[in-house]
Design brief:
Layout (H helix, E strand, L loop, with lengths): L1 E10 L6 E11 L4 E5 L6 H8 L7 E6 L2 E2 L5 H11 E4 L11 H6 L9 H14 L15 H13 L5 E5 L7 H16 L3 E5 L3 H4 L4 E6 L2 E7 L2
Parallel strand pairs: 3-8, 3-9, 6-7, 7-8
Antiparallel strand pairs: 1-2, 1-4, 4-5, 9-10
């Protein structure tokens, strides 16, 4: 599903470049649940941005679903990302002036779907995530946990094979965080490949494998405890 070969990224600083990632080699088969951990500045968010096709300025090879990301044109990379990647952020990134249902519809606007099909998929997703009663509310009217639940629903509404999560429970209290992680577990059991960045050892235990970065290097790979 995902394969990185000698992936590196640096900033052009003087007198020498600042390295953010060094010689990262990584394989993530379809259906795996991976956790990326490490201290601040280790390269976690940089790696996730590359995996999410948000950053194309890197050296090395990145293969996603058999496609050579490293050699794709911007338009091709954009299309691949829309097809394969769902993203969940710590800050939710919901659109404040849209209702819950309208937020869910946003990623469907990039697909060749009839309005009736989009409406049906939004309705199914509202039901699947048990947020039908919130469909006409705006993000400001929801709790943090409810906003993150909507953000996860929006990320997976188009059934991307890969879900990337950047500190998905960082702004939630412990019970809300457990609910989101249990949701990730169920999505993974249904076949979604998940890569999360977290500082939480408890959250890491929901996955299969932990990747630890240090100063941009892949320092350790081990099964989740």
């Amino acid at each position: 599903m995902i394969r990185l070969v000698q992936v590196e990224k640096s900033l052009d600083t003087r007198p020498s470049p600042t390295w953010l990632l060094r010689r990262i080699g990584l394989e993530i088969p379809a259906g795996e649940f991976i956790t990326i951990m490490g201290p601040s500045g280790a390269g976690k968010s940089t790696l996730l941005s590359i995996l999410g096709l948000l950053d194309a300025d890197f050296r090395g090879e990145y293969w996603l679903d058999g496609q050579p990301v490293h050699s794709l044109k911007p338009k091709e990379r954009f299309a691949l990302g829309r097809r394969c990647i769902g993203f969940v952020f710590q800050q939710y990134h919901l659109l404040d002036d849209l209702t819950v249902a309208e937020n869910l519809d946003v990623p469907l606007g990039y697909r060749d779907m009839k309005s009736a099909e989009r409406a049906a998929l939004v309705a199914d997703t509202l039901d699947r995530f048990q947020i039908v009663g919130k469909k006409d509310l705006y993000p400001r009217q929801l709790s943090g946990g409810q906003q993150q639940l909507v953000a996860v629903a929006r990320a997976v509404i188009a059934s991307p094979p890969v879900l990337l999560a950047d500190e998905p429970t960082g702004n939630l209290h412990s019970e809300q965080g457990r609910e989101i992680m249990e949701l990730f577990r169920r999505l993974n059991q249904q076949g979604t490949t998940i890569v999360q960045v977290t500082h939480s050892e408890e959250n890491a235990r929901y996955g299969h494998r932990v990747i630890r970065l240090r100063d941009g290097w892949l320092a350790e790979q081990a099964p989740a405890a």
